[in-house]
Backbone:
């Protein structure tokens, strides 16, 4: 699939043009112009370049996220979006602090790790305890209650690579529930092998959750090489003692917000085609692939239409969601604020899987998908067999009946960088992001001009 | 050359066997046995696995390097080396401390960097100053004296990839002399783009030097993505202010040492064939490719001979040099301690370029190189056109006339990892390191059994 996507990127303007000459796919001159301008342009790349350079990391609820909102408001206005505004909401803040770890015995050495988002701190100065090893999260789940009193639990387990990121869900269970399952059994802290597919010395952060009825214990992620090292040390068969000190802190109610801009529809302006991405990032990198790329792709797609002087019949709304990483809070805030007009959202989709080209189109509609299929054909993309909820921030509104679709990007290497310090601009290929801009621009344009009511018979696609 | 080396690795035992059947290359059954046992064995890999797992990082002069010496003494005895001993010496100690940096304006954000080895600290709490940008070290050299008063100098410049690491010397000038050249002109501190070929968010450390007649100023290296980011920020044209705080410290006289073990020769035990590597590493990673691999390759080669019950006519001496990273101090200590018997060293070579397979053989002898050429032919390796000083720790004795040779390994990707936290065991391919063991075992065996006096007419190969 990666190879097919690559061919598409390098040959697309020729092959699509040839298809168009046949007149077989419903494409007209404006459609071709949108693809051509997107592919030859740098609109998406320029936006992610600006956001990651001029703001950098933008952790939800922090002053950096607030600067990112200001930056995005200015950028949306600069590219010609209308009704530019912030819809504010409040989130529980969390910030990282000191984080160190070391093997104390039998082989003294430092280990590189990072606190998971939402984790409580160790006592000041840290803790020192013996490691109890679970090769997988399932092994921990199968362990008897009790028996881990005062121990530091180490949960390993590797994530499989896949174009659609299918390994993420299974690998992520230890991140989301490791502290709860270890805490239930009496553990004092948890370290996990990072949820990721690389072998670089970057720990991967990401949000964790505590169950209401279990006392919270600290949880942090080791880089893959550090997890390998700890496994080798454990294989020697001696008791392994670790010193662990993480000092993240909850910062109370903090501001976040969704930044919105529109191309107002000429005939049915109250009907919304929503294209979105999330503006916040984790604090370790500059959030280039997660999700500055999505902000660039969606705002860049709108910019293409504006620059071509194209005004659709329905309104195209670009949303840069806040606070996605810490629990899809911008997606929920949008759904709640727009509860009364969700029925006017005719289609919604999010870009949040890096900047590699799409290799298939997923449908979250059951009626009137002809337009989406035409766009997929014009992009030389097959229709995938799975459904979609449109993306993480779209999920909450999808569960209230908003029709969705998604361009499935090639995410084979996405989890090499995801939630690490290494998520930086140099990882984005300008040609690849331009191909995504082309896809979003054409889809938004065609959906906003269609007569289709994508809503009819839309199933509950929550996943 | 990488492709040729790869073919060698996968096909070598067959093709060499076939050559041997022709009897055309002077190889005998013992030679083939050495190659076969090396290639099918894990001796080298097991040694670097043990060293990096059970000791980890081992910065020169620290307690960790002392533990590495103890570990190596035990390992040398375990594999059957004779006359195992440490030749101690004293070095000026240096240790890393806090190191943080941030852009203060116009776009506030943290930057990842690390102090260069030997650097002085900033004043406690750090300094804040404007950045003055030099695209290359040569641009700084060309700048007028004065004019940088109180500024933080940023020296960029990219290193080119090459199989033989030819880009390292030119790129390294800013690391070694950046503080001197900036200090001469009044600067208060220096940050450089890391000397490396990757685009990961790892700064590369490495030793720097101060000139005697210039007041020392602190110097640190930014990761490549951070240097890119700083360049993009500078391109915006506004004054860029940086806060920089590095707190390394000189720790006074500290112990180091060279660990030595031998296979004593049966006929001319006083004549030495020396195969060596360096035992110390930088403190950021676990020193797997630099130079745990070399310790594994050379000690593993001796282990192969011992396990086969092979005793050479001359003595094969394995040396694990201390304190290489901080100025080749083990190499100089060895030269000085052995000043009176350097004339008994008939050939010396070092492995210090990772674990990728060799692609050519370099000569530092002018007489009696027939044995070396035979070994190269048996390994299917061409003779390179350049000379060699045998490796960093061999250089000092080479300048006193000790004949040398070197297996030039493929170092195309070596500087992706060199001197970073990412120099860890997972980067070593067991088959590749086994091929290096084969090369060293056969060379040591053949040179130690030869009648050749490699010394005759040995030129001054210092480079």
Residues:
């Amino acid at each position: 699939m990666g190879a097919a996507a690559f061919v598409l990127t390098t040959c697309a303007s020729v092959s699509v043009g040839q298809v168009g000459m046949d007149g077989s796919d419903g494409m007209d001159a404006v459609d071709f112009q949108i693809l051509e301008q997107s592919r030859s342009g740098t609109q998406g790349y320029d936006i992610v370049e600006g956001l990651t350079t001029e703001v950098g990391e933008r952790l939800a609820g922090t002053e950096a996220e607030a600067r990112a909102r200001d930056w995005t408001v200015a950028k949306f206005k600069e590219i010609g979006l209308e009704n530019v505004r912030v819809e504010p909401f409040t989130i529980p803040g969390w910030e990282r602090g000191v984080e160190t770890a070391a093997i104390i015995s039998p082989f003294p050495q430092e280990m590189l790790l990072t606190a998971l988002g939402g984790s409580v701190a160790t006592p000041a100065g840290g803790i020192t305890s013996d490691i109890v090893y679970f090769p997988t999260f399932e092994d921990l789940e199968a362990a008897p209650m009790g028996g881990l009193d005062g121990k530091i639990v180490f949960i390993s387990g590797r994530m499989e690579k896949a174009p659609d990121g299918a390994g993420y869900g299974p690998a992520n269970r230890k991140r989301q529930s490791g502290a709860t399952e270890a805490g239930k059994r009496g553990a004092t802290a948890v370290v996990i092998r990072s949820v990721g597919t690389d072998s670089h010395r970057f720990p991967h952060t990401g949000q964790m959750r505590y169950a209401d009825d279990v006392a919270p214990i600290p949880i942090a992620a080791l880089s893959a090489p550090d997890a390998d090292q700890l496994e080798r040390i454990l294989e020697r068969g001696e008791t392994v003692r670790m010193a662990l000190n993480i000092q993240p802190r909850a910062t109370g109610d903090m501001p976040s917000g969704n930044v919105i801009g529109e191309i107002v529809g000429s005939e049915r302006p109250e009907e919304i085609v929503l294209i979105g991405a999330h503006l916040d990032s984790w604090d370790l990198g500059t959030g280039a692939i997660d999700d500055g790329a999505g902000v660039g792709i969606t705002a860049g797609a709108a910019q293409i239409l504006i620059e071509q002087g194209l005004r659709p019949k329905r309104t195209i709304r670009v949303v840069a969601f806040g606070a996605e990483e810490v629990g899809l809070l911008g997606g929920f805030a949008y759904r709640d604020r727009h509860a009364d007009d969700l029925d006017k959202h005719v289609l919604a989709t999010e870009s949040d899987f890096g900047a590699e080209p799409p290799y298939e189109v997923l449908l979250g509609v059951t009626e009137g998908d002809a337009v989406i299929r035409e766009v997929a054909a014009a992009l030389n993309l097959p229709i995938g067999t799975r459904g979609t909820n449109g993306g993480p921030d779209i999920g909450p509104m999808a569960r209230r009946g908003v029709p969705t679709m998604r361009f499935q990007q090639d995410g084979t290497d996405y989890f090499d960088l995801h939630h690490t310090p290494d998520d930086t601009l140099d990882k984005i290929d300008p040609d690849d992001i331009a191909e995504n801009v082309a896809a979003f621009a054409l889809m938004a344009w065609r959906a906003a001009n269609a007569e289709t009511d994508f809503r009819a018979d839309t199933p509950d696609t929550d996943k």
Notes: The interface with chain B takes residues 49, 52-57, 64, 67, 106-110, 112, 199-202, 224-225, 228-229, 232-233, 236, 285-286, 420-422, 424-427 of chain A (CB under 8 Å). The first strand of chain A starts at residue 82 and ends at 95. Residues 1-24 of chain A have pLDDT under 50 and may be disordered. DSSP finds 13 helices and 16 strands in chain A.
